[in-house]
Specification:
Layout lengths: L8 E2 L3 E9 L3 H9 L5 E16 L4 H7 L4 E10 L4 E3 L3 E8 L2 E8 L3 E3 L5 H10 L4 H7 L3 E15 L4 E13 L11 E3 L2 E9 L6 H6 L10 H9 L6
Antiparallel strand pairs: 1-7, 2-7, 2-12, 3-4, 3-9, 4-6, 5-8, 6-7, 9-10, 10-11, 10-12
Length: 237
């Protein structure tokens, strides 16, 4: 069992502002990030981000996000790289949102295998064996896996290091059942690019300059909401 005190992380509160770009090339979007007046450069390598979202059986988190509830949360297991097979460095994340300000609590998990036979019980065993704090384990016991998604992410940072853009493209959404998943079947969104501006609460001085220079309006977008509504079209009301 792992020592939770060694891996539990609570991020500083930060603002997250999203731009939804439709039917434009990724080269165009990269260029408008780089020519922003305060100056941004590419950092890190592009990588595939994978998430399995967990929700109550009645989809409480989905409805809170769909209707824009001020206090809302998402629970997911996240990892990078290949989507299927042995997952070496998964992290359980609780993403807590209060209006535009977000925080994350993160807990390292043991490696696991993701296959079409993976079940809810497999995840509960993973959570239990990873040494999660008792209160966290009690919380995830109430949840079920509802969606698998992935996308390609690029990273940009301002020259002063205070602001970050992420660029997400090639969104894929997979249904998640308790057993007999069909991960060879998925929906892919090749036309939507999500750009997100992230910065600490204290760094609001020139945000309006950054956003006003972006030729796309700020918008709301949740990959979790989009995925659930693709899988369950009757919910998209």
């Amino acid at each position: 069992m792992q020592n939770t005190s060694e891996y539990t992380v609570l991020e500083n509160a930060r603002f997250e502002r999203k731009f939804v770009v439709e039917n434009q090339s990724v080269q165009y979007v990269r260029q408008i990030i780089r020519i922003n007046p305060i100056g941004f450069r590419s950092v890190f390598q592009s990588r595939r981000v994978n998430n399995i979202y967990f929700d109550s059986p009645s989809l409480n988190n989905y409805y809170d996000n769909h209707y824009g509830k001020s206090a809302r949360s998402k629970v997911r297991v996240r990892w990078y790289g290949e989507t299927f097979g042995r997952i070496e460095h998964p992290i359980l994340e609780f993403k807590l949102k209060r209006a535009l300000v977000g925080k994350k609590k993160s807990f390292k998990l043991l490696p696991f295998e993701l296959t079409e036979k993976t079940t809810k019980q497999d995840f509960f065993e993973l959570f239990k064996n990873s040494g999660l704090p008792e209160e966290v384990l009690n919380e995830v016991k109430k949840l079920v896996p509802t969606l698998l998604n992935n996308y390609q992410r690029e990273y940009f940072k301002s020259f002063d290091g205070k602001y970050r853009f992420t660029l997400d493209q090639k969104l894929r959404f997979y249904g998640f059942k308790n057993k007999n998943n069909r991960f060879h079947q998925f929906t892919e969104d090749k036309e939507t690019i999500i750009v997100e501006l992230k910065y600490d609460e204290k760094e609001t001085d020139i945000v309006s300059l950054i956003t006003s220079s972006f030729p796309v309006r700020l918008n709301k977008f949740s990959k979790y909401v989009r995925g659930i509504e693709i899988l369950h079209p009757h919910l998209a009301v």
